[in-house]
Write a structure and sequence with these properties.
The complex is a heterodimer of chains A (about 220) and B (about 230). Chain A is an alpha/beta fold. Chain A has a single domain, classed as Glutaconate Coenzyme A-transferase (3-Layer(aba) Sandwich). In chain A, about 20% of the residues lie in helices and about 30% in strands. The longest helix of chain A has 12 residues. Chain A is globular, with a radius of gyration of 17 Å. By secondary structure, chain B is of the alpha/beta class. Chain B has a domain of about 160 residues: Glutaconate Coenzyme A-transferase (3-Layer(aba) Sandwich). The C terminus of chain B is likely disordered. The chains are: A alpha/beta (about 220), B alpha/beta (about 230). At the A-B interface, helix 4, helix 5 and helix 6 of A face helix 2 and helix 3 of B.
Chain lengths: ~220, ~230
């Protein structure tokens, strides 16, 4: 039995400038906050980030926005972070806005080995620009392509040392989906418990998907 | 009565026992306060919860139990938490009975624009496109005008949220239903005339012979609406 726990500094050093990151969380709830802080501290640049939102200024992914560590952002909602909107309108950060359900399914299809998904969401709107449409039984759908990333940075409630993960309430959000779609998956649990303590029925993300666990403070 | 309270109270009358309901951020969220007695609905939050309860007192809050704006909420006994794919599967898959959203513009086709003003305000669509596409009923709760300018137009000139026809628009002046024939004026607010609604609306309204007054309790003088 090997265990996957490592320090936040060592884990963040695995992530190079220019990497593509899936980052879990919804308005910062369920985001891997210590990993984000460490990426800021190490001065990472030119990141492509795929995340539901950029939280509030000074919170979660908002910290990466503040130091301009992100060159491209794929997200659903930036309305609560005026700095992200400012960078988008000023052309400083490339922002692709995606409907939330579509983002979830694009990531899922990436992680599940599918060629994309067909969704009715966005048909006839700006979200359809440049996308193929498919008509099925008289109804029009957009073909939305899969998303994968070099890394998935996951916030979770509990892990065992082997990497089985559990989530808490609304901190779950995109995390279990993103854990399927990163080449390297780094999870930041609130606590790490001995292997065997999490009942198989209660494992949400199985350990084979997880490469590294962030251990508690150093 | 404050105009937003009036809108929320009227929207609340649209909800029926057993409904699964998603309330958008802002004015729509306040609808939950005005549910008529005996109406038992279930609220969904798209960040992954069914069974939302009012914000608990300090000391009862959980940092991992939040609404779609990231603020604290409660959960009722029997609540369920799930991931974003499940949350939008419920929305897109036809399992959500009602969504209540804010609006920037609604037009004669019943189409809604509510997610961006190009070059000025780009909050993003968040879950709005999925909600308007997938919910069984879409209720837009918004002020009738913005700084005196009509928001109910012949055609939206802001980017659309969906091409799907919404179910109902509820403002502080009127209840309007988009139909095959166009926008039908269903109700006026207490103290508001049909002529005032027509004057504040750019779109052509179909006005039936009888336009009833909203059946809401007015607990303040009607002048408060002016």
């Amino acid at each position: 039995m090997f265990h996957k726990a490592t320090s936040v500094a060592v884990a963040a050093e695995r992530i190079p400038d220019g990497a593509t990151l899936l980052i879990g969380g919804f308005m910062g709830v369920g985001s891997p906050h210590r990993l984000i802080d460490e990426l800021v501290r190490q001065g990472r640049k030119n990141l492509t980030v795929i995340a539901n939102d950029t939280a509030l200024p000074g919170t979660g992914i908002g910290k990466l926005i503040a130091v301009k560590a992100i060159s491209k952002l794929i997200t659903t909602h930036i309305g609560l972070n005026p700095e992200t909107q400012r960078q988008m309108i000023a052309g400083e950060t490339e922002v692709e806005l995606v409907p939330q359900g579509t983002l979830a399914e694009r990531i899922r299809s990436g992680g599940f080995g599918l060629g994309g998904v067909l969704t009715p969401t966005g048909v006839g709107t700006l979200a359809a620009d440049g996308k193929r449409t498919v008509e099925i039984e008289g109804k029009v759908f957009l073909l939305e392509l899969p998303i994968k990333a070099d890394f998935a940075l996951i916030g979770c409630h509990r892990a065992d040392y082997q990497g089985n993960l559990q989530y808490a309430l609304t901190a779950r959000n995109f995390n279990p989906i993103m854990a399927m779609a990163g080449d390297t998956v780094i999870a930041e649990p609130t606590e790490i418990v001995p292997v065997g303590e999490i009942s198989p029925d209660h494992v949400v993300t199985p350990h084979v998907l997880v490469d590294l666990l962030i251990e508690k403070g150093q | 009565m404050d105009e937003k309270v009036l809108i929320a109270k009227r929207v609340a009358l649209e909800l029926q026992s057993g409904n699964l309901v998603n309330l958008g951020i802002g004015l729509p969220t306040t609808v939950a306060r005005y549910l008529p007695a005996g109406v038992d609905v279930c609220f969904q939050s798209e960040n992954g919860l069914i069974g939302l309860a009012p914000v608990p007192a300090k000391g009862y809050r959980n940092e991992n139990l939040t609404d779609a704006g990231g603020g604290p909420v409660g959960a009722l006994p029997g609540a369920a938490a799930f991931d974003s794919c499940m949350s939008f599967g419920l929305i897109r898959g036809g399992h959500l009975d009602v969504t209540v959203l804010g609006g920037l513009q609604v037009d004669e086709l019943g189409q809604l624009a509510n997610w961006m003003v190009p070059g000025k305000m780009v909050p993003g669509m968040g879950g709005a496109m999925d909600l308007v596409t997938g919910a069984r009923r879409v209720i837009v709760a918004m002020t009738h005008t913005a700084k005196g300018a009509p928001k109910i137009l012949k055609r939206c000139n802001l980017p659309l949220t969906s091409v799907r026809r919404i179910s109902l628009v509820i403002t502080e002046m009127a209840v309007i239903e988009p139909t095959d024939d166009g926008l039908v004026l269903r109700e006026v607010a207490p103290g508001v005339t049909v002529e005032q609604v027509v004057a504040a609306t750019e779109a052509t309204l179909i006005v039936p012979a009888n336009v009833p007054v909203m059946a809401i309790a007015v607990d303040e003088p009607e002048t408060a609406l002016a």
